[in-house]
Amino acid sequence: MMRRTQTSGPGSTIALSRRRPGSRGVEPFIFNTFNTIFMIILVIVTLYPFLNTIVVSFNAGNDTIRGGLYLWPRQFTLQNYKAVFASGTIYDAFLISVARTVISTLLNIFLTTMLAYTLSRREYVFRKPITTIFVLTMYFNAGLIPGYFLMKDLNLINSFLVYVLPSMVSAFNLIVIRTYIYTIPESLVESARIDGAGDFKIFWRVILPLCKPVLATIALFVAVGAWNSWFDAFLYTSSKQELSTLQYELMKLLSSSMNANSNPAVSNGVGMEHATQVTPISIRAAITVVASIPILVVYPFMQKYFVVGLNVGSVKE
Amino acid sequence: MEEIAIGAKPVNPVDPKKKRSNKRLTWATVKEQRQLIYMSVPLLAYIVLFAYVPIWGWSMAFQDYKPARSFDEQTWVGFKHFKFLFTDDNFMRVLRNTLAMSMINLILGFVTAIILALLLNEIKKLFWKRTVQTISYLPHFLSWIIVTGIVATSLASDGIINDVLLKLHLIDKPILWLSEGKYFWGVVGASHVWKEVGWNTIIYLAAMASIDPALYEAADIDGANRYQKMWNITLPGIKPTIIILLIMSIGHILEAGFEVQYLLGNGLVVDWSETIDIFVLKYGIAQGNYSLATAGGIFKTVVSITMLLLANWTAKRLGEERLL
Questions:
Q1: ipTM reported for the complex, 2 dp
Q2: Which of A60, A305, B1, B109 could form a disulfide with A75 if both were Cys (CB 3.0 to 4.6 A apart)?
Q3: Residue B54's domain spans which residues?
Q4: Interface contact flag, B6 A299, Cβ < 8 Å
Q5: What sections of the protein cross the membrane (chain A) (predicted)?
Q6: Residues B89 and B66 in one domain
């Protein structure tokens, strides 16, 4: 899509307009200057809070309280990170977060694509009813309380499975992947069938490998969703510390440090032994950095695929 | 480029009618398609369990639900809880907050995303354009926990916002942004814009890229300037996209969100920060008043679906693109 901007789009009108004397002059210059300044401000407003958080995370806690810390640490230290990982709680939460993200993503990709394949087979007898039943779930849900009771009845409270099971297949991703499968030539499926392959084999050997580009997008969305979610930990596993996730730990820390903003001596059990140098604010900054790193690492690689998912979302079904 | 062409029509021109109608539900078909059935029917059972079975729980809203009792031992009370909701000041305030914050997010979100897309579209240097885009998408991928943490830090009395305002002499003393109710809706709206504006432009930029360049060339020959082209070609060109997105958002009018308000809210601003979702959580999970909380949840779902259908119907009447 971005490449298309290059070749068609308004960009191609430049060549034409340059030849026209009327389009040169003061007005485009003012506009372009204003536009560039605006974009620079946008970039600063977006990036500064991160940079500042990173700076705070590398600065000695008791020095940060003095304020006036902007783009460079004043008293560089790794103490905040040491305190974060020394506490054990955060380390475990990190592992739980990684586990749920990896398992959710793999399961979701596999199951959603498998279902999408069956629903892309035009001859399949249950195609229509199954599609309708899944698509309807995009427009409503039973709500928090009935959902909570379901998890309770299924014995999923305080179980790792509650992170994975409720979100194994999603209707939106299903439609995106199915639309993609439609673009794969039917002859590939037919020739595999002539060679004696069953539907599962066709899905596994033909469809799944060909879907890689769209699956990269979906995997990113699912993984980011799983990595970022805290509400399920808050609701379903909050009484079991071993199952806490990184985001939930961060949330607990955030709410306690927001209440304790004026009183840096209040500690949260994390880094008690470093109380002289480490404050809730500096710990929070360090955990924020730890919680964003996986996303910042994956992000540049996935960026070129974003447009895919969003565009299909607007296709009328 | 192939991987991008998802929205395209199927490559193989199969006549859909012919393909669809020749299979009827018979034992022979079931046997022939058993692999497709193995691959899909368990997932059908899964979605029925996780999405449809809980709807049964809506019955709680019409009972004085007590967890210890079985279904036939519950007392049925009809619309008592719904009546209570609509006479309850607390719920009315929560509803007001939800509607206000949704409307602010909706309008602010649309306007800022469209303006940013128009401005990005005017950047001719591709590298610069991509750099700005890459940076502006970034916050979308961070959790609300991280974003609200950043927002709270920036808005603190010694935070960067107060710092800048003080240095520009716009204010004399730091403003306590998160301690005063009158700022709360604005803070939530601004946080949404910060997190999502770049992401929301993707779809408009894609729509702009698919506008026929001949239109711009024709406008150039007619001597149109930049603003005339924006107003008469680009904006009408993305109108279908805007309308589809609007319909989708209107369906979520009672989903002002939960996370931002929950994470940024505090005792001082509670009258402005609580939304229906927080109300449901508070009454349901924290206080155990399951019936009332379920009634609140049902109200939200019913309004959402009604609004979605209404918006869709209006779009159809106006002869525009529609969702359903």
A1: 0.83
A2: A60
A3: 27-75
A4: no
A5: 29-51, 94-117, 129-149, 161-181, 202-227, 281-301
A6: no
